[in-house]
Structure formats: structure tokens, C-alpha cells
Amino acid sequence: MFAREHVEYKALDLPDRSDLSDGEMLSESKAFYEKMKRRHTVREYSERPVAREVIEECIRTAGTAPSGANHQPWHFVAISDPAFKKRVREASEEEERKFYEGGAGDEWLKALEPIGTNDHKPHLEEAPWLIVVFSQKWGYFEDGDRFKNYYVPESTGIACGFLLAALHHAGLVSLTHTPNPMKFLTAMLGRPAHEKPIMIIAVGHPRKDASVPSVAKMKKPLNEIMTLAE
Q1: Collapsing DSSP states into helix, strand and coil, what is residue 167?
Q2: pLDDT band per the 50, 70, 90 thresholds, residue 110
Q3: What pLDDT was estimated at residue 98?
Q4: 3-class DSSP state for residue 140?
Q5: For 165-175, how does the pLDDT look when each residue is reduced to its tens digit (9 = 90+)?
Q6: Which of 78, 91, 189, 192 shows the shortest CA–CA distance to 127?
Q7: What domains lie within the chain, and their CATH numbers?
Q8: Would you say residue 143 has pLDDT above 90?
Q9: CA 203, CA 163: separation in Å to the nearest integer?
């Protein structure tokens, strides 16, 4: 953890180690792929509640992500209060209306057509939890002096990936939502000026009639996303 006082580098023996055979590594990697390919972005949520402790553990997992200089430049606000979720939905839909009424441009809107989205976001109220992700451009020491964070978008993005994987591993579904702009969340959630909201994640259980757009199952094959240099 970053600290103001001088902290010297000190090497520790690797505290956790997996010693798998080549066959076990391949088996584990295939099993993880099989689990993760069943992760879907879901817009229809059931009324089944999700315990706060589950959300806490998933966010705890996100907090283990690597980050620039180990500054961990992120903060997660978990919301379950119905009135608060309603406020988030109303403010998000206001920004989304501007987006769909011309702010996005024709090319962007056409790209979204197969997804079937619009400015109507009921999932922001229906999902039992919303997790708002903030990135921190800089931090503060206890005396108020400011210090810089590094690789903030990259670090926060990795943490979000950890979080989505943890939520899926816990048997939950999620949806990432990025209204543009999102500045309203900073004031609404009482976050400091050096934090930038980057994502709203709706979390819960899928409704029995939940569906996904067919295009969501069309993933690029390995030969399109990977190049080998052996």
C-alpha cells in the first residue's frame, strides 16, 4: 500500500502458489472458460434478494486486482435502497434520452440496434443491487496533501473485470451501464471531486422470462483475438 513515509522495497517469498501439472493446468483453464462463457448481460431481474455479504465479498475480490504502483485507485458504492435506485434510474434515463435523441450519432445508434437497447432502463430499479464504480485520479495523505495515481483507467478496468467474474462465480447476473455523462453520480452519492464515476453495474438474479439478444452469443473465434509469436 502506498504511504507517505519512505517505504523500502522488501521481497517476500511467494505466499500462495499453485503447482499444477500441465494436464491439470489445461483442465482448469478449460473449466474456467466453460464457466465464464455462461456469463450473460441481463436486463430482466427477479425480486429475489441478494445478501449484502455476497456483494461485499465480490467487491473484496475486485479489490485484489493489480494496479499501477499498487495505489488501488478505485471505490465501489453498493446501493440497495429502492429510493436511491429510483434516483439513479431517473438521472440515468435523462442522460440516455439525450444520447438516443441525437447525441450518439447515427453510426453509434446503428451499432446498438442488434443489442435492442433504448433510453428505458427499468433494470436500474428492478435489480436488487447497483454497484457504482469510481476511479480516483489522485489520492490524499492524512494531512491533505495530494498524490498522483498511475494507470488509473487500466487499473480500474481490471478491477471491474475481477468484479464481474466474482459476481458470475457467485451465481449472479449483471449488466454494465455507462450513461454519458455520469457526473451526476458524484454529487448524488456524496463522493469527492477527485473520483470519476465510470460504470453502474446492476446485479441480481435473472427473471424467469429473462432473455439476451442473439448477437450477444456471437463471440469472435480465438484466431481473430489471438496472435502467436513462438
Answers
A1: helix
A2: confident
A3: 87
A4: strand
A5: 999 999 999 99
A6: 78
A7: 48-208 (3.40.109.10)
A8: no
A9: 11
